[in-house]
Amino acid sequence: MRNGNQRTGAVIALGEYRKMRHDPLIQQVIAYWEALRGGRPAPLRAEVDPRGIEAALDRVFLAERLAEGIGRFRLSGMTLNDLMGMEVRGMPLTTMILPEGRERFSRALERVFQGGVRTTIRLTAAKGLGRPELVGELLLLPLANDRGDNPLVLGCLVTAGTIGRAPRRMTLGAVHEVAYEATSPAGPRPAPAKAPALPDRLRSKGFAEAEMPRYIADPAPAPATGRSEAPTATPDGRSTGTPGGATNGVRQGGATPQTRRPALRLVKSDL
Description:
alpha+beta, 6 strands, six-stranded antiparallel beta sheet, 271 residues, Beta-Lactamase
């Protein structure tokens, strides 16, 4: 028995087939994506309206390709943040996978980035103290980038069980790929436009795109001398402040050392 367009062609038992059935939220996201695609290789990022997948929104994420087999979270719903115990935006997708499964996951992810395949992956979280049984189903769908550069992936992660003590990284189970064919060429890319404002009920679920974090160091302040210096005066009697143009501890622009923002942000990761 051949299973449609699936890349297996193997005979499977009825019990195994039932295990392969998708979660209803996964089915909803697939149906929405297929409607947007309309026979094209992939729908455009600009065409994705969060209101169309509102029921699954806190489980949905968007990722962009950085290199072969490497993608990072561009935005995500709250489920992934809760699963990892941190904000995942800007982090690699392999963050949620245990090291022994990352190479296999990267190969599956790259095939989705290349297009023509949508993928679901069965996941199981490692158990331990404060970490009860937790299983999940991950959906990966290709998206076309509106700018025409790095391809994107629309994903959805549905879990069953208690998260417990985060982070909960997963082991890979069955990887199920479904090939599809484009019956119409990709449509013209729309002009870039500002995304409409999301209602508060959607924004609170975490699916609100913003700029990636930027960590830029400010110039280091001049070392303190520990002594007060008297201002100098010009021949006409006007004061010029402290020698060398300093302002007695006040930086140009009005920011004092107490109010100046931190120069660096250190991020420690155990990946």
